[in-house]
Structures are given as structure tokens and as C-alpha cells.
Write a structure and sequence with these properties.
Elements lengths: L5 H18 L9 E6 L2 E7 L15 E4 L4 E3 L6 H13 L5 E5 L2 H7 L11 H4 L5 E4 L9 H11 L4 E4 L3 E6 L2 H22 L10 H13 L3 H16 L9
Parallel strand pairs: 6-7
Antiparallel strand pairs: 1-2, 1-5, 2-3, 3-4, 5-8, 7-8
Length: 247
């Protein structure tokens, strides 16, 4: 494979996100899934395989699948819920090049609280102003196209979905942007949960200020990519061989 081949780059970016998520404590066992639409093939997506810990996944381990649940390329199986969540979101939301689903602890804690929301009480939270949808209907394990389609509809035109009693989904036009949102979402949720433990009221700001700050953050189009490249350098430094593309 050529280094600058778009599919090779997509594999590298997906492996970067998975390994980095493990380093940041956003993973859970060998569960949960990250996926990317295959460049030039909107009917296919790349996804992490079943049974591998995110910290050990290389680009060669990633699986290419279609929306019907068939493995098109790869030597590993894929967890069923990965097809039903990621396949249906990729099929139903062309904006979602990257789809990240986790049970990361602080954000998931907010999904377990009655009427839990990301409150506009920290600068990290302001970046999510008017970008989060909340699905209030827990539907059990996502093991059907109907449940995957319901999750996709619940997300609507938002970038982030909180799944009640379950976890979160983050979508983005690139893996760098999606991972940046995932990382800072957990940071915002962590600080909010810590603040709530003081039993003192949260100090929230008004919508106008939150919107202005969100726009300021969105106008910085380089930060997510710089962060993502830094994560790759850290993996190069600490985890030799992580870029493996073949056997």
C-alpha cells in the first residue's frame, strides 16, 4: 500500500484513535467501536475487530465491512452491535465520516442521571453548545437494524448523541475532529461530575456567551489536527510497530 493512499491513511487514523482512546481511559474491555467511512466507497466502512484490546490494534487488524454486515476485507470478526450502530449511522448520515461509540466513564455517568445533560458550566463544555442530542429511550443491546436506525434518527443533525443508560456516540467529518470532540467531551463531563459532588450549584453561563465561545473554538480549524498528529508522535515514541499495515 502507498503511504499516501487514502484508505491506508484512514486505517492509520482509525488505529491512532483507538490506541489513543486506550491511553486516555476512554475504552472498556474489548467492547465499543470506532469506525470510518472508506474513502471513495461510501457503501463501506472500517471498524475495529471483535476481541482485540484497543491498545493492541494496528492498521492491519482493522476490518472493512458493508452495511449488510458482511466482512469485505480483514481476518477478524466484527461484533454484531458494531454493524447495527455504525453501519446504520454511516448509511443514514453522510456527514459522519468518523463514528465513535464509547462507554467512557464520566460522560456515561451523565447518561445515568435523570435528565442528565452537559451543562454550560466550563469552557470545555461550551464547545458543545447546541451540538448534542439526547436519546431518552434505552432500547437494550443494539442488535437490529431497527435499533441502529433509531439511534441514527435520535442523533438527527447533531454531532454527538447521549444514549440514556448506555454511553455516547460522536460523529465527525474527519477522525481528528471526531477524536478531539470525544476527548474534550469526557474532560467536560469529568469536571462537571466532580463539581456536582461538592453539592454546590453549578455556575452556568447564558446561551449567547456559550454560543459565542463555541464559535470561537470552531473557528480554530488547526487545533484538532495538531493534537491528532501529536498523538501519532507519542505512539511512535512509546509503541513501536503500531503502524503495521500487513502481516
Amino acid at each position: 500500500m502507498l503511504l499516501n493512499d487514502p484508505v491506508t491513511q484512514a486505517r492509520l487514523d482509525l488505529a491512532t484513535a483507538l490506541r489513543s482512546a486506550a491511553r486516555h481511559g476512554l475504552n472498556e474491555g474489548v467492547c465499543n467501536h470506532f469506525s470510518m467511512a472508506v474513502p471513495g466507497r461510501p457503501d463501506l466502512f472500517l471498524v475495529n475487530p471483535q476481541g482485540l484490546h484497543w491498545s493492541e490494534i494496528s492498521p492491519a487488524d482493522l476490518v472493512m465491512a458493508d452495511f449488510a454486515g458482511n466482512v469485505v476485507e480483514g481476518r477478524h470478526p466484527v461484533e454484531a452491535s458494531a454493524f447495527y450502530i455504525h453501519g446504520r449511522i454511516h448509511a443514514g448520515n453522510p456527514r459522519a465520516t468518523a463514528v465513535l461509540h464509547t462507554h467512557m466513564p464520566y460522560a456515561t455517568a451523565l447518561t445515568s442521571i435523570r435528565d442528565g445533560r452537559v451543562e454550560m458550566c466550563t469552557q470545555n463544555a461550551f464547545r458543545y453548545w447546541n451540538r448534542i442530542a439526547y436519546d431518552e429511550a434505552y432500547g437494550g443491546l443494539a442488535l437490529s437494524n431497527a435499533e441502529g436506525d433509531r439511534i441514527c434518527r435520535a442523533m438527527g443533525d447533531k454531532d454527538i448523541l447521549f444514549l440514556r443508560n448506555h454511553g455516547i456516540v460522536v460523529c465527525g467529518p474527519t477522525m481528528a475532529q471526531a477524536y478531539e470532540d470525544l476527548y474534550y467531551l469526557e474532560r467536560a463531563a469529568m469536571v462537571q461530575v466532580l463539581a456536582m459532588q461538592t453539592d454546590r450549584p453549578l455556575h452556568t453561563i447564558d446561551d449567547a456567551c456559550a454560543q459565542q465561545t463555541a464559535e470561537q473554538i470552531a473557528n480554530d480549524t488547526q487545533q484538532a489536527f495538531l493534537h491528532f498528529e501529536a498523538l501519532k508522535r507519542m505512539l511512535d515514541r512509546d509503541e513501536p510497530g503500531w503502524r503495521r499495515q500487513g502481516e
